[in-house]
Amino acid sequence: MAIDGSKIIHAIMEGSKIRESKGIIPIFGVYLSLFSVEYYNRLSFSFMHKMGAPQKETSEKLLIEAAQECGYATFQGIRNSWEWDQIVVPMIETREDQIFGFTAVAVAFGWGDLEVKKIVPGKKMILRANDSYEATGYLEQYGFSDSGKCYMLRGVSGAFMDLIYGKEYPEGLFNFTAQEPLCRAKGDTYCEFLVTKSPNSCQV
Ligand SMILES: [Zn+2]
Hints:
Elements: H1 5-15, E1 25-27, E2 30-32, H2 37-51, H3 56-79, H4 82-88, H5 97-108, E3 114-120, E4 124-129, H6 133-142, H7 151-165, E5 176-182, E6 191-197
Antiparallel strand pairs: 1-2, 3-4, 4-6, 5-6
Helix pairs in contact: 1-5, 2-3, 2-6, 3-7
Bound molecules: zinc ion.
């Protein structure tokens, strides 16, 4: 594999030491900030509970779509940045390598120990997380669930495929959809995200 994830992670760890006066971290063409995962988990899981069981599908969809839209815009900024050009582009040999580059960036951002397990170009991707903070937070707060709880990573997985195989930005958002067949929150060993083309999507 052409992409050296440790090189990308090291560059981000170094760059993220820079802070603007308001604590914003300007790196890879986007603005980042430190955010407590406990706070994020509390917000999203409380939102789910307030919405209630009859609205479960709708509330999950909202959280996943918010993450997918965020991932789509954020990684579009990242892949158009000076740092991406300097650090990642020289390692890219295939279109799929961009996904390995995205994944290394997401790992460095602290989004999870993500690993690309499979890519079928243009059709499918399987992304695995051994230590998703959403699954950990859910288990700590509520115990075992009967369904996957990693809405952020589910949306981000879809965004990666949207950016690589969807229509040209910004028309490719939601061309792909991620499911989470395996999740630690429901007792599986790890979380796994399966991304496929969205129903009725007609991207090339
Ligand atoms: Zn999970």
